[in-house]
């Protein structure tokens, strides 16, 4: 797999993790401490995927 | 925002969705990731060796081996849904004009599948309002009736393990025992049970188990089901084409050839884990049913509740519709305003719902939404 494709899926998959948090906490979207950590980890993965992608194309 | 001209669907992200048709099929993040990756047509067929169910890459065969054990059966194959699984059994083991016995709470597709197979249909009635219970012992009487009227026992008995209206859980082992006694093959329709709660086909005497994976196995949007059978039926029900030697007849060779199969495979570890926590789901359903009763609503079906589906009757909510400016559409609208969605628009007098897979906080939010509507719009 090329690095750009790997980076793309890393970002997409991490966004699905964010989406999961929205689903778990609907409708108020108030995150507890564990969920906040998951959210931050997912955002980091999205950003890193996008950074890698940007660097390749 | 829209997508390809379609309204963006945000029912799971922005609302607590209590549509009982959808709660058990909602996919986990892993399944959605699998769909993103396998979105192309025939994506599961990249390393096809002739038939879907014996694929080694992705490991469909190993998955089906695991799943058949998970269901307490000997073999399993992928179908396009539970209805296709039921029809496959009927088509494989009966001939037109023969007889099938079904239960009064059957899904319409059980009946339609039997019709398509050209079968004579006898029905074990439910107890009717308000519990709508199917008594396993009543299968005995209908089997006797079939024998008296046709000269032979039925060729198949079908039990809806859990019905989709009242969420009654029937004692499948009792029906299985009676089927064994009469020598009638037994098909357990586990569309609303498998994937949600533990199901052990052989333990209840089932010869066949049909499952809906977009309904109960968190497989998401693609149509996908499972048909599991005992060893004695493998040859007949999984029979291959005489010309195309690897193609099972009853699924016309191959069934779910796209992303639904990887989605199911990705959801399966979560499903295998979640059935262990079925007690929590029942506890939540009982709590919610209790809250409804405190509000003056009537909960139908067996008591105490043993499943997440709750059928509600309500004079209070109906009365509100007579004066509310949105008439009978007010309930769905007022619920939506409070972040709850999934009660069929236009219904107020009776409706069904499920809070399966929701957090306790979300279940409590559902109860609050109904209570708030009644307090604001109900009789003062």
Q: What name does the CATH topology of the largest domain in chain B carry?
A: Aspartate Aminotransferase, domain 2
Strand arrangement within the widest β-sheet of chain B reads: 4-10-9-8-7-5-6
Radius of gyration of chain B: 22 Å
What class do helices, strands and sheet pairing of chain A give? mainly alpha
**Secondary structure: helix percent of chain B:** 25-40%
Helix/strand order of chain B, N-terminal first: EEEHHEHEHEHEHEEHEHHHEEHHEEH
Total domains of chain B, how many?
2
Low-confidence parts of chain A:
none
Q: Could you please describe the fold and organization of this structure?
A:
The complex is a heterodimer of chains A (57) and B (380). Chain A is mainly α and 57 residues long. Chain A has helices spanning 3-25, 33-56. The longest helix of chain A has 24 residues, at 33-56. The model of chain A has no long low-confidence stretch (mean pLDDT 97). Chain B has 380 residues and is of the alpha/beta class. Chain B is built from 13 helices and 14 strands. Chain B has helices at residues 29-37, 60-70, 82-93, 108-116, 138-150, 172-182, 213-216, 231-237, 260-274, 278-294, 315-323, 330-337, 360-377; strands at residues 2-3, 6-7, 16-17, 75-79, 99-103, 120-124, 156-160, 186-189, 208-212, 225-229, 298-299, 309-313, 340-341, 350-354. Chain B has a 7-stranded mixed beta sheet, with helices on both faces. In chain B, strands 11-12-14 form a 3-stranded antiparallel beta sheet, covered by helices on one side. In chain B, helix 10 (278-294) packs parallel to helix 13 (360-377). The model of chain B has no long low-confidence stretch (mean pLDDT 97). Chain A binds chain B through residues 9, 12-13, 16-17, 19-20, 22-24, 26-28, and chain B through 12-16, 26, 28-29, 32-33, 36-37, 338-340, 359, 362, 365.
């Amino acid at each position: 797999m090329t690095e750009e494709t790997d980076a793309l899926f890393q970002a997409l998959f991490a966004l699905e993790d964010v989406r999961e948090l929205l689903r778990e906490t609907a409708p108020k979207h108030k995150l507890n401490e564990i969920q906040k950590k998951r959210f931050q980890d997912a955002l980091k993965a999205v950003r890193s995927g996008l950074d890698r992608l940007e660097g390749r194309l | 925002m829209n997508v390809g001209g379609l309204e963006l669907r945000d029912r799971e992200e922005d609302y607590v969705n209590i549509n009982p048709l959808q709660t058990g099929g909602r996919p986990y993040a892993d399944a959605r990731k699998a769909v993103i990756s396998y979105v192309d047509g025939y994506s599961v067929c990249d390393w096809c060796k002739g038939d879907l169910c014996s694929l080694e890459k992705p490991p469909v065969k190993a998955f089906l081996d695991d799943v058949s054990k998970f269901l307490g059966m000997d073999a399993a194959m992928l179908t396009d849904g539970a209805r296709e699984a039921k029809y496959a059994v009927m088509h494989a083991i009966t001939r037109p004009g023969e007889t099938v016995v079904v239960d009064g709470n059957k899904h319409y597709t059980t009946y339609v599948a039997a019709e398509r197979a050209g079968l004579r249909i006898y029905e074990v009635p439910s107890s009717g309002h308000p519990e709508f219970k199917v008594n396993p012992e009543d299968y005995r009487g209908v089997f006797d009736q079939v024998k008296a009227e046709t000269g032979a026992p039925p060729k198949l008995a079908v039990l809806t393990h859990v019905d989709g209206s009242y969420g009654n859980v029937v004692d499948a082992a009792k029906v299985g025992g009676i089927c064994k006694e009469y020598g009638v093959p037994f098909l357990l329709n586990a569309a609303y049970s498998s994937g949600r709660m533990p199901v052990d086909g052989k333990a209840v005497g089932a010869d066949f188990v049909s499952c809906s994976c977009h309904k109960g196995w968190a497989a998401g949007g693609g149509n996908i089901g499972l048909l599991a059978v005992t060893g004695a039926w493998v040859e007949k029900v999984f029979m291959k084409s005489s010309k195309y030697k690897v193609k099972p007849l009853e699924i016309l060779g191959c069934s779910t050839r796209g992303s639904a199969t990887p989605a199911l495979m990705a959801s399966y570890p979560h499903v295998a884990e979640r059935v262990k926590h079925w007690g929590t789901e029942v506890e939540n359903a009982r709590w919610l049913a209790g809250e409804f009763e405190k509000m003056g609503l009537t909960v139908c079906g067996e008591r105490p509740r043993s499943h997440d589906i709750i059928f509600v009757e309500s004079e209070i909510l109906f009365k509100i519709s007579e004066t509310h400016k949105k008439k009978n559409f007010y309930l769905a609208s007022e619920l939506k305003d409070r972040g709850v969605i999934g009660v069929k628009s236009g219904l107020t007098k009776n409706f069904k719902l499920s809070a399966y897979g929701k957090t306790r906080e979300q279940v409590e939010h559902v109860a609050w939404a109904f209570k708030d509507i009644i307090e604001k719009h109900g009789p003062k």
